[in-house]
Amino acid sequence: SNAMQTRTNPNPITITSQRTYICLVVDTSASMSHLRQALKSGVKEFVDNQKKNASDENRLSSTFLRLVTFNTEVSIKYDGPIKDFDGCEFETEGRTRLFDTVVDEVNNLTRKMTLPRYLASLSPAKGVFLVMTDGENNCGSSDPATMSKKVQVARNKGVLCTFMGANQDAPRTGDTYGFSPDASLTFTPHVDTTVA
Q1: pLDDT score for 180
Q2: Helices 145-156 and 98-113, interaxial angle, to 10°?
Q3: Cβ contacts of residue 175 below 8 Å, gap of 6+?
Q4: Residue 39 vs residues 26, 44, 185, 189, 193: alpha-carbon distances, Å
Q5: What is the three-class DSSP state of 65?
Q6: What ranges in the chain are assigned the alpha helix state H?
Q7: Average pLDDT, the chain
Q8: Phi/psi of residue 193, each to 5°?
């Protein structure tokens, strides 16, 4: 009898449990101008690796990238499925609005990761937060304390937070900014590969 027939629908919210949000925050202030080519290739390499990981883990369609650049102003270069990102150009100018940009973007990332209460039984979304900078905040808030607290809260929620500092002691700077020293990397690009 057709009256007793049960339908076997795939779970319509399965994809929600596999969401991954990646936020990449890149300093494009004037002090980073000699690193412009390194930023472009570094971002491409990072995103390509994330795409490969997402594909290998069968979550390419539910992995999202937000690429934000900042100097005196903040610019959203990309915000969408990572599979559709194909790189971008960087213009370097202005000052370094580091602290306020990180606070805003950590807030945005943790908000995206938060599931509505009726979906709370699903496994939580993954979050990745990466900052690339020379670390010299000189625009906006001058105190790193708020940023440091926000980064630590995100880390406590399971967000993988990485600080990439150009030409500095990144583990020390990253620690001051709320990042784990183990997840703070110093990059000193080679001059011959970073000429604009």
Answers
A1: 94
A2: 20
A3: 181, 184
A4: 8, 8, 14, 9, 11
A5: strand
A6: 36-56, 98-113, 145-156, 170-176, 191-194
A7: 85
A8: -105, 0
Q: Which tokens belong to 43? A: 């971002």
DSSP output for 9-33: PPPTTGGGGG-EEEEEEEE-SGGGG
Cβ-based burial of 146 (10 A; exposed 0-12, middle 13-18, buried ≥19): middle
Q: What pTM, to 2 d.p., does this model score? A: 0.84
Tokens of 162: 């990485």
Integer Cα distance of 103 and 113 in angstroms: 16
Integer Cα distance of 89 and 77 in angstroms: 9
Residues contacting 33, CB < 8 A, separation 6+:
92, 93, 196
Give me the sign of the Cα torsion angle 184, 125, 26, 58.
positive
